[in-house]
Amino acid sequence: RSWLTSFMAGESVFNHGQEDVFLAPGPLCYSLSLYVAVYALDRGASLYLFPRFSEQDILDAISREGKCFVYVVPTMLQALSSARVKMDEPVTFISSGAKLQDTVRKNTLASFPKCTIYEYYGASELSLVTYMDELSLIDYPESVGRPFPGVKLSIRNEKGDLLGPGEIGELYVSSPFTFRQ
Q1: What is each CA distance from 94 to 97, 139, 181, in whole angstroms?
Q2: What share of the chain has pLDDT > 70, as a percent?
Q3: CA–CA dist 109, 128 (Å, integer)
Q4: Element (H, E) at 149
Q5: Minimal CA–CA distance to 131: which of 31, 14, 5, 11?
Q6: What whole-number distance in Å separates Cα of residue 42 and Cα of residue 34?
Q7: pTM of the model
Q8: How high is the pLDDT of residue 125?
Q9: CB 20, CB 14: distance < 8 Å
Q10: Nearest to residue 153, comparing CAs of 173, 168, 126?
Q11: Which of 50, 115, 158, 175 matches a 20 to 30 Å C-alpha distance to 71?
Q12: pLDDT for 43-83, tens place per residue?
């Protein structure tokens, strides 16, 4: 249920749906690949599954398909942009798993000048938490973004009391996307 609910939030933020093509450039034992595969299957969208990450296989699929959505981790983006290609396809990269470094973002934009880049934070047990769109990535490169629709965040102390701006504590996430124990 948590993933089915998160699919709608992802569609509203990333602007994709059942008519789009998705690439899962790694094995299904990785939650990012599994998530996009289940999403595409649930929506009846086109999906390319790759048993392992291969820069050339991904570049070939992007070249063949044109407009597509590629769920990646930053090291994959770094490898794709290091391939020294320039592709004019309007590909969308959705990055998760670690903070996207500014040099990787810039190199990706140089290799894929018509691309869109999103970054999001999530975890298997939380699903989607925060996201960054292109403008946010440029204006606030150190940020982890804004909450997905329906997600509420707060910073609390060890007693669970709300803390104010600038105070250090633990991040609490309230979300319709969390799984039940």
Answers
A1: 10, 18, 28
A2: 99
A3: 25
A4: none
A5: 14
A6: 12
A7: 0.91
A8: 77
A9: no
A10: 173
A11: 175
A12: 999 999 999 999 999 999 999 998 999 999 999 999 999 88
Q: Which two tokens stand for residue 55?
A: 């820069």
Q: Could you give the strand order of the β-sheet that contains 116-123, starting from the edge strand earlier in sequence?
A: 46-49, 21-24, 69-72, 92-95, 116-123, 127-132, 146-147
Which DSSP category does 109 fall into? Answer: H
| Residue with more model confidence, 126 or 10 | 10
Distance CA 59, CA 84 (A): 11
Residues 6+ apart with CB under 8 A from 43: 7, 17, 18
d(CA 107, CA 180): 40
pLDDT at 180: 65
Q: Which residue has the tokens 């982890």?
A: 144
CA proximity to 35, closest of 127, 118, 121: 127
- From residue 146, alpha-carbon distances to 50, 150, 157, 174 in Å are 31, 11, 21, 14
Task: Dihedral sign for Cα 93, 109, 80, 123, please.
Answer: negative
Contacts of 143 (CB under 8 A, 6+ apart): 132, 136
Instruction: Give the pLDDT score at 4.
Output: 87
